[in-house]
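Private note to self, pasted from the team thread so I don't lose it. Backbone tokens:
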């Protein structure tokens, strides 16, 4: 139960005001205090309300409002003192008093108030939850972590700073700032020569706009930006939600114009706080869509076969009837951190950790304890690549909701699995040219269980892959127009503190003449088009008719391509969708679906320049290749 619940309880107390007439001076001071607070003169408002109570010590309305103000200020001891005055003559102040005592750390005194007043309560649920919280705080503060969380200094301002995201080289920190409590934008800071942090600078446009941009994350390879954008409501109210997920891409230092994830992920409800797995294939995010456990839940969408699949709920082990937010999956792909106000904790929103036990199953979440969590709100976090440092947002040293960024050495019990970083590029072994969009699949060398799927960067053919240390991995690499490659990489002796450099050569597929590969048909598509015309269908039927009578041993490859505009993930999805339409027509003609290999290669392997409209038109194509 947070500040809103406390306000509601105090509002109920208003109806139990004593029947005695409030003295005029006390009434006048009370009204002056309300005006001062509305003008954001908070210190004067509180002092004036204190004077009103001094004039009339049993002024229930004044006691209720002043106690709530102090609670909102995180002045929990002063809040308790005010509610204690009310409790001395009206037991209906018992709950806000007990809550203030819990948040001030006076848990033994709070438990006494709870025991004395909860038995006869009409609704014991809030009392039981408060008792559990008090007992948890007692236990947590008796065994605190050795290290202390400290304010990060210069990146923080009088505005709220939230959603820290540390780069994998640990030199750059991205975060969200809520400016003047109205606009949210992305900021960036870097490490100074003394190991501290510089003042944050606005990331500019793109990705920032006049709308609300928040809760950003940067993919492990540094090329993708995923984030939440709010105030998107479309004219009909349903085309977009109030908050949706967006992505941007950069090949070098310039971000593309952000694109919406579309209706597979976004709904008219709330979608936000994204986190992408290290292999860019699993997207964790927060939504209040139907099918959850209550409030905000964490959901997971998988990128498979060139498409984002329908999201699934992370399950009851993670989600509760409360709010689960700010998911963060470490690059070990196993250790999961998030925020929740629905589980036992220090109060408000706490940070939790769970470990993966299966593809969609997790251990029971563990509260990350004190002093990581406090009786204030800890709202978001990230953990660096080595797993020894935690960055998080908390409003512990300010009024409710005015967050700052904090840093702390992460206790060993809460650390992720050690990982190696493997980086390099894919290249043509004959010409030495870099190869973008090469598909890299990694499996366990012993069990051959497929673990990860990456693509080399579209700009320079580079990759950066993080893998749990101490194991051997089987790598399989394929790219259109090149022969498949593969090798086993043993990381058991590789230094954890330094990236391991490994470049991957591939031979062109025509280095040895292909076995009777024949391109029998090419279909071109308009910009963003994903449908076949009647003439396209007629062309497919005509091209395939010679092969209908002799289909034994026939292999059909249907390859989709796009131009280089837009985002690579979207292009891969679009090219796969187009290839699938052509494949469906071929199956309808009577060919065996098992003889057809459908692939979406996105912007890889252009046949013409992407610098002209004519060239881009030729690159937006689906090719049907017959192999005998």
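Design output:
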């Amino acid at each position: 139960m947070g500040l809103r619940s406390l306000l509601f309880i105090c509002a109920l107390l208003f109806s139990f005001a004593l029947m005695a007439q409030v003295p005029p001076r006390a009434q006048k001071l009370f009204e002056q205090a309300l005006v001062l607070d509305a003008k954001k003169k908070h210190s004067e408002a509180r002092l004036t309300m204190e004077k009103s109570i001094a004039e009339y010590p049993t002024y229930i309305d004044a006691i209720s409002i002043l106690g709530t103000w102090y609670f909102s200020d995180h002045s929990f001891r002063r809040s308790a003192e005010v509610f204690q005055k009310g409790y001395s003559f009206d037991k209906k102040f018992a709950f806000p008093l007990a809550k203030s005592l819990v948040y001030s750390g006076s848990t033994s005194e709070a438990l006494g108030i709870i025991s004395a007043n909860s038995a006869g309560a009409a609704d014991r649920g809030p009392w039981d939850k408060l008792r559990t919280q008090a007992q948890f705080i007692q236990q947590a503060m008796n065994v605190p972590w050795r290290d202390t969380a400290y304010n990060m200094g210069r990146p923080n301002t009088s505005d709220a700073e939230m959603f820290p995201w540390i780069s994998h080289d640990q030199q750059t920190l991205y975060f969200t700032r809520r400016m003047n409590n109205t606009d949210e934008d992305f900021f960036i800071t870097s490490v100074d020569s003394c190991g501290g942090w510089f003042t944050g600078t606005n990331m500019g446009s793109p990705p920032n706009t006049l709308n609300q941009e928040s809760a950003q994350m940067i993919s492990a390879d540094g090329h993708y930006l995923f984030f939440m954008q709010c105030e998107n409501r479309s004219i009909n109210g349903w085309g977009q939600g109030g908050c949706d997920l967006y992505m941007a891409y950069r090949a070098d230092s310039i971000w593309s114009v952000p694109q919406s994830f579309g209706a597979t992920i976004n709904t008219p409800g709330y979608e936000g706080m994204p986190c992408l797995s290290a292999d860019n294939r699993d997207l964790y995010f927060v939504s209040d869509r139907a099918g959850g456990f209550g409030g905000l839940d964490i959901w997971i969408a998988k990128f498979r076969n060139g498409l984002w699949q329908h999201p699934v709920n992370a399950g009851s082990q993670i989600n509760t009837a409360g709010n689960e937010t700010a998911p963060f999956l470490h690059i070990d792909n196993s250790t999961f951190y998030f925020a929740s106000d629905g589980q036992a904790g220090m109060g408000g929103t706490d940070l939790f950790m769970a470990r993966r036990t299966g593809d969609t199953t997790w251990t029971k979440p563990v509260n990350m304890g004190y002093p990581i969590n406090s009786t204030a709100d800890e709202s978001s976090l990230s953990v660096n690549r080595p797993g020894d440092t935690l960055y998080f947002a908390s409003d512990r040293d300010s009024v409710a909701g005015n967050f700052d960024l904090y840093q702390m050495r992460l206790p060993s019990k809460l650390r992720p699995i050690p990982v190696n970083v493997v980086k390099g590029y894919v290249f043509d072994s004959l010409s030495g040219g870099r190869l973008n969009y090469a598909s890299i699949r990694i499996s366990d060398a012993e069990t051959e269980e497929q673990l990860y799927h990456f693509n080399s960067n579209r700009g320079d053919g580079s990759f950066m892959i993080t893998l749990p240390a101490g194991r051997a991995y089987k790598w399989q690499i394929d790219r259109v127009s090149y022969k498949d490659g593969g090798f086993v990489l043993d990381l058991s002796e590789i230094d954890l503190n330094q990236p391991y450099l490994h470049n991957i050569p591939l031979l062109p597929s025509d280095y040895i003449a292909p076995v009777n590969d024949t391109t029998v048909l090419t279909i071109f598509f308009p910009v963003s088009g994903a449908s076949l015309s009647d003439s396209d269908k007629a062309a497919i039927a005509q091209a395939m008719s010679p092969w209908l009578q002799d289909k034994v041993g026939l292999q059909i490859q249907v390859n989709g391509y796009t131009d280089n505009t837009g985002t690579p993930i979207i292009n891969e999805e679009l090219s796969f969708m187009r290839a699938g339409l052509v494949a469906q027509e071929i199956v309808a003609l009577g060919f065996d679906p098992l003889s057809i290999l459908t692939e979406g290669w996105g912007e890889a392997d252009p046949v013409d320049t992407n610098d002209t409209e004519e060239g881009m038109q030729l690159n937006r194509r689906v090719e049907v290749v017959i192999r005998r």
